[in-house]
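PROTEIN DESIGN WORKSHEET
SECTION A - STRUCTURE
LENGTH: 500
TOKENS:
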């Protein structure tokens, strides 16, 4: 044992525990890991009494707070338990044993119900399970839509949250407004008018629990089972599943360099009730809908008495070319329902989005909203209002825009360096991801690459998986916004090795 490692008395039942100050791991975590391992290995059997924290701290020559912190975590996770008058002891039932019991309970049991009496799932549930849109896990490279969290001003955010709730008015504690916190809706309305060219009042802004709830709300208001809906092909699978859950008959409309092909939509389903599009930055291809196409789809909606769902999920991040104003700003007939989110701009756990509703639909949206929830959670809305109104949101966006542009170039350089001849990358004018094409000469399949990458702890969606029509393109969708330059280079190296 080195001079920097602690010594201890021979009376302690934790003889193998050391506190190494030369290690990078914090002392509290060292103690937790070693006590946990001693319990799991059987060195400390269930019911064994542990030394007092004061004695163990003295034995290891560390502060008592270090031991208290480690023991609190062991207690919280179920490895130890405290008994009045008998000190701290190893738990009789350990967390791992509970997990094994739970797994045994989850083993499928042979069904003995009579024929025709089986429990069933809805087709919506089955379809949602098959799509598996949400992929949990710690992997970051190259998850699309993941923002950078290191630059978010959490200290400032914490101050805004604390200030909002230090002495809140009673009415804020009793119930929220159906459409959301009015000052926040005013801030959003002002921001959208100044930056995205929208024509809207605060009364038209409804706060939602992220963009996905906004999409679900739109589907509930607009669609009856069997109604036809235009959907971009390729397109966002989360939107497809939401529309299918509402009973929509999806009409896949191809996307070219000018955006959704409106003429194809008119031919396939002129009587559709809704067109769901991402005109500012098409997902996943990244193209921007041309002015001609924008005017065409607005004309169709007016003529067909239909609606347009404009998903403007990452419009803030544009790096080249003249910014296009939102489609809603061109709409003279109140046919566009606009959806935005803060989750992809600030941080995913925020779960706050909004929908800008045409005035004729406000009563319907408000009525249907009651079937989802009474009102959106109010906890973070006042802080977000101040974050926007005081200019912090715009400042944060400017920082991220510069950073993401640099990271996109880092991604392109890395692909050219490590994956030349297999992957073809070109700069994108906007967004948080790149669509990387497969070189036809390499003979690779994007689904196979995606599956192999997942085994290697890389999230690399296949471009072909976003298509639902007969024709699809081979490529990969690589997110870069939430990755450091080092992570981008290391991730591309790992991906390149898979391609070999």
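SECTION B - SEQUENCE
RESIDUE ASSIGNMENT:
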């Amino acid at each position: 044992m080195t001079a920097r490692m602690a010594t201890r008395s021979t009376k302690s039942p934790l003889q193998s525990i050391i506190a190494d100050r030369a290690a990078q791991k914090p002392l509290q975590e060292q103690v937790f890991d070693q006590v946990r391992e001693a319990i799991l290995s059987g060195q400390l059997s269930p019911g064994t009494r542990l030394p007092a924290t004061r004695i163990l701290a003295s034995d290891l020559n560390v502060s008592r707070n270090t031991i208290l912190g480690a023991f609190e975590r062991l207690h919280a996770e179920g490895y130890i338990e405290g008994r009045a008058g008998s000190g701290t002891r190893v738990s009789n039932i350990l967390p791992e044993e509970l997990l094994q019991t739970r797994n045994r309970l989850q083993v499928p049991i042979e069904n003995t119900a009579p024929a025709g009496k089986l429990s069933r799932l809805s087709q919506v549930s089955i379809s949602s399970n098959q799509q598996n849109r949400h992929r949990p896990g710690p992997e970051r490279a190259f998850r699309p839509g993941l923002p950078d969290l290191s630059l978010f001003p959490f200290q400032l955010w914490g101050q805004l949250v604390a200030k909002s709730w230090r002495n809140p008015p009673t009415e804020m504690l009793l119930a929220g407004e159906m459409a959301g916190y009015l000052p926040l809706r005013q801030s959003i309305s002002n921001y959208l008018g100044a930056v995205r060219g929208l024509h809207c009042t605060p009364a038209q802004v409804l706060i939602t629990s992220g963009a996905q709830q906004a999409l679900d709300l739109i589907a509930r208001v607009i669609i009856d089972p069997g109604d036809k809906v235009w959907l971009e092909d390729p397109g966002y699978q989360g939107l497809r599943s939401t529309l299918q859950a509402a009973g929509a008959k999806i009409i896949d409309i191809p996307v070219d360099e000018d955006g959704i092909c409106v003429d194809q939509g008119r031919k396939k389903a002129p009587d559709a009730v809704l067109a769901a599009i991402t005109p500012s930055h098409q997902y996943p291809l990244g193209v921007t809908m041309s002015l001609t196409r924008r005017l065409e789809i607005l004309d169709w909606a007016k003529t067909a008495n239909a609606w347009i769902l404009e998903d403007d999920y990452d419009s803030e991040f544009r790096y080249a070319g003249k910014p296009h104003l939102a489609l809603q700003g061109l709409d003279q007939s109140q046919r566009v329902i606009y959806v935005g989110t803060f989750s992809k701009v600030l941080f995913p756990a925020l779960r706050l989005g909004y929908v800008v509703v045409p005035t004729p639909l406000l009563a319907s949206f408000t009525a249907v909203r009651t079937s989802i929830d009474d009102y959106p959670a109010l906890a973070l809305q006042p802080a977000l209002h101040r974050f926007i109104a005081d200019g912090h949101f715009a400042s944060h966006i400017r920082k991220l825009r510069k950073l993401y542009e640099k990271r996109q170039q880092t991604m392109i350089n890395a692909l050219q360096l490590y994956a030349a001849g297999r992957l073809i990358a070109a700069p994108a004018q906007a967004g948080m991801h790149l669509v990387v094409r497969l070189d036809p000469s390499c003979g690779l399949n994007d689904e196979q690459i995606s599956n192999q990458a997942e085994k290697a702890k890389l999230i690399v969606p296949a471009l072909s998986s976003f298509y639902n029509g007969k024709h699809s393109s081979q490529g990969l969708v690589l997110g870069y916004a939430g990755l450091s330059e080092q992570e981008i280079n290391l991730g591309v190296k790992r991906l390149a090795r898979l391609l070999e």
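SECTION C - NOTES
The longest strand covers residues 249-256.
The chain has a mean pLDDT of 86.
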